[in-house]
Amino acid sequence: MTSTPLARARATTVASVPSGHVYVRHLAPESGDGPVRLPDPPPLGVRRPPSQQWWPPAMLDEAWVDAHAHEIDVFHLHFGFDALDPARLDRIASALRRHGVPLVYTVHDLRNPHHTDRTAHDAQLDVLVAAADALVTLTPGAAAEIERRWGRTARVVPHPHVVPLAAMRAARTARDVRSRARTDQPFRVGLHLKSLRASMAPELVLPTLVETVADLPGAVLQVNAHRDVLGSDGPRHDADLARLVRGYADAGRLELRVHDYLSDDDLHAYLGGLDLSVLPYRFGTHSGWLEACRDLGTTVVAPSCGYFAEQGPVLGYRLDEDGYDPETLAAAVRRGHAERPDWGASVAQRRRQRADVAAAHDDLYRRLVEEAR
């Protein structure tokens, strides 16, 4: 059906699950125009803290769909369905079909980084990929895998910036000032041990990093770890890893910084102070951490699993569920030290990209709404 000028003048109303995540916030144009995304309802059974917690998402419920379908034009799922079994996801999709509300699913994860066993996530994907009226993903490799596994075409729309554009500009300026002012500051290689997702293999990469960085003039290995991992009473405490990390720290072979979760500002300052950030993942698909590093001018050392290398320029090494090649990691770090690449995205590039990403989503939503009519 051809839309009328009046119909096209009304902004599309989208139930994004979630809407408060930084990725979703940056799908909107800077101007604030474009689709209207409903705010995240308070999570079921959870008192909303100052951080504006959105999980578990209240919208992921067939009763919510029945009660609010008249308020929305499109339902767009991103994250938050980890705890839902496939039957419930199917009921939610059925409720959306019953009310004539199109379902968009952005496939961020083809392999859940929190699950050692992929069976449960694969079963969820079987439901969502089949049920969605439109699929989006972030890289051509992920789109090819979706086509191969389910015979469905996913629109490729790249990950927008993570760091706010003003903070990006300030971080880049600060990096340039440091570079001009001093030549004796250390070359800083970072490894972050954050709550130890199932996908992480720091015990494999850490010995390689310690030995490699020790041989590089003026280089320092910085390990940041959360208290819940290294603290003996932490809920995610790993005694073997704690002994390994603290042993290297006590021997003066790395700088250890233990802390709780960092605020966004503190996280950006930390990442912006690194020259290399090493991702220790055995499996995964895409990375917001990688995008934040690109925003801040920090070079990423990324494993061979997933599609990290398609998100932007990285130094690659071999680590996946089939094995690890320490020499490839050592070579990547040595290359980073020798070449000091500047592969970060500029503010101008991210601004143009955000406009393109926003337009792509607006176009997709409008097409689906017209087809639903």
UniProtKB/TrEMBL annotation:
**Which SUPFAM superfamilies does the annotation name?**
UDP-Glycosyltransferase/glycogen phosphorylase
Domain (Glycosyltransferase subfamily 4-like N-terminal) spans 22-159
Is Transferase tagged as a keyword? yes
What EC number(s) does the entry state?
2.4.-.-
Keyword list, A-Z: Glycosyltransferase, Transferase
A Pfam family found in this protein is Glyco_transf_4
A GO molecular function assigned to this protein is:
glycosyltransferase activity
Q: Protein name, please? A: Glycosyltransferase
